[in-house]
Amino acid sequence: MTVTTPPSSPARPASRRVVIAIVGCAVLVALGAWVGSLFGGMIDLRVYRMGGSVLLHGKSLYDAQLPGSGLPFTYPPFAAIAMVPLAAVPWGVALVTWTTISVLCITALWRTSLPKTFWSFVTQRKRTAALIALTILSLLLEPVWQTIQFGQINLLLTAMILLDLVRPNNTKLRGFWVGVTIGVKLTPLPFLALLIVTKQWRALRNAVLGLLATMAIGFAIVPHQSWRYWTDVILDANRVGGIAYTGNQSFNGFLHRIGDDASWVQPTWFVLSVVFGLLVLWLARRYWLADERVTAISVMALAVLYASPISWSHHWVWIIPLGVSLIRGVNRRWGLNPAVVTGVLFYGLFVLRSIWWVPYRDDRELSWTFWQSIPGNSHLIVGMIAFILLVITSRGLPKPSAPATSDPA
């Protein structure tokens, strides 16, 4: 009798490579954290773990403060529930695990943002080398490094949103993970508006279901804490820190640095946010209808960054896909050389970290001179220039057929 050996599964070598890549990344992260003395820092990761630990011990989530800093937990209850595993393991394990996830998200952002035409010219080995190089170089960008050294969640949420929305319209549960990110941290909420203006009704439904699922989990596990958050804590913007602090790169931060607590600041912020938000929706819709999904999502992220009451500099990790979109737009309209110059200037300005060149903390931002306010608001300035260039380069975009622009409910 002849025994036929079944062919080996092609997925097995691929899965082995993925495991090797993750383990290798974790080892490098552990080494880098030791060299960079991150084991003694990561203050935001410590706050996340505090939230998980408070739930494990049945204490009051929104009365707890991180020892030594007094920082409170500011996220929805679902975020604390999701952080329980990190609170249950030793600090070193949590740090390496969390940072490895963030680093892998950097790679995923580059891989998703770069167009197919880029990947078609290189071999698999060169693709891997290019992604590794881009991931490492990304650590020089101010928002990315701030996210890493604080142990922030921004890279994970950005990757979840981008990878979710670039999928084909008929993908199962597309949009659900956008809703989950809102349930973890409220700032991605404006992405629902993008789904509305582009008539992505199925994705919108899934996003709402994702958000409701996180709220339901919160109420099921910690009902009192959930009620307190959604009726009280959510309205307290002062829990997250000084609005005028230079790290707050939003319209609200900019206006408070000019007028402090003057009566005109809040109305002006509201008007600016609404006007800019509408402009962003118009431009994002235009790119979405042209099937430029990464650009549309990146443009929508600008509305989140500018209009949010607090947009810390580490929230600006959206510059990874935004910069790629900007380079592509300039290349399409003016050619390769201007595109290369644009890319170098755009990413280079974030490498310079100029928002930290000027006096900050203890309300020193309130006495900036005009020339100090330029580097002190540089994220806002560079982002606005990028928006204007994307408006200009949107002219002449191709218009796909109607079925590609919306999905049925």
From TrEMBL:
GO terms for molecular function: hexosyltransferase activity. InterPro entries: GT87. The chain crosses the membrane at residues 18-43, 78-110, 131-163, 175-197, 204-222, 264-284, 296-319, 339-358, 379-397. It holds the Pfam family GT87. It is a multi-pass membrane protein. One of its GO terms (cellular component) is plasma membrane. It comes from the Bacteria. It is found in: Cell membrane. Keywords: Cell membrane, Glycosyltransferase, Membrane, Transferase, Transmembrane, Transmembrane helix. Belongs to the glycosyltransferase 87 family. This is Alpha-1,2-mannosyltransferase.
